[in-house]
Amino acid sequence: KDLSVMSIVSKAINRQLISYISSPAGNRRLLCQDFHCAGFVEGGRESPILEHYRVLEIPCFQLGGCPTPDRCLGLLSYGAFLKILTAGWDELECHRVYIFLCDVTNLPRKIQTLVSSKPGIAYKLELRMRLFCRHVFLDNWNLRRDSAFWLTRLLKPWPMVNQARLLYIFYGPVNSVDGHIAWLQMTEGLAGENCLKGLADAIKLLYDPESKEWTADDVISLVDELSVVPNQWLLENNARLLILSGNSICFTFMASKAVNGRTADLGRMVVFLALVSAVYCAWRRNGEDSSFINLFHLVSAQANFHKEILYLTLNTPSV
């Protein structure tokens, strides 16, 4: 600690210290070679040694620098440091920090590589991007508006189709064996609540009134675009996502279908919402979630009303 203070007040000592740390001898002596051993976490709390590395530029703090990012605590420390550093800052100052981090990590170029590639082709980069963005930008905040701010920074520069792709990379389901993004989960099989909860929570975050950079139409368009990433989802999975996203988003999504004349899509979705809601209600018969029960009864009534529409329009192409 004394040496750290001296390096702050003396440029000469600072230069000597940086030179020594950068040398092979200094690197071996002062810098831990990895963050992967269990000893760094004791009783669920970070070891004090991690404090030493929060501001040092070592591979485990870089996007693509660590060979085993899924077992590394470096990015978690990076995110914790970012939270401490920007505590109390206004959005303009935080935006400048984000621009700086984009510059030093080449984040926009790497995102461009991902959204320009077919899903799953750059699977290593997809995993690294997910871990980097979640640990550094997205998972550390106590306030919803802070989480929404950083998620918005990551999504807003890109077209809607790319926003949906990125949202899936950040919060979509992953393979239980290797941790890679499970691109076919939504299109080839039924997704459980655990697979969809992250996506639903992110959608609710952007739909929140405090997320002033997103309109309701923006979020509904994003949900619509998400349902075809990488291909058309099974309708059961669409219905589950809408239910987990909450009543307001669900009803707004359905209203958007009606206003735009997509009666076939509306009829199909109402039926599957009723079916999926019935399953959820069977799990929650104790009445713990009255709003969800109300949703079930309303959707069930709508399903009966729209049954004839479904029969008439099932074979009609969507507008």
TrEMBL record:
InterPro entries: ARM_FBXO47 (IPR056622), FBXO47 (IPR038946). It comes from the Eukaryota. It holds the Pfam family ARM_FBXO47. Residues 106-298 form the FBXO47 ARM repeats region domain. PANTHER family: F-BOX ONLY PROTEIN 47. This is FBXO47 ARM repeats region domain-containing protein. It comes from Eleutherodactylus coqui (Puerto Rican coqui).
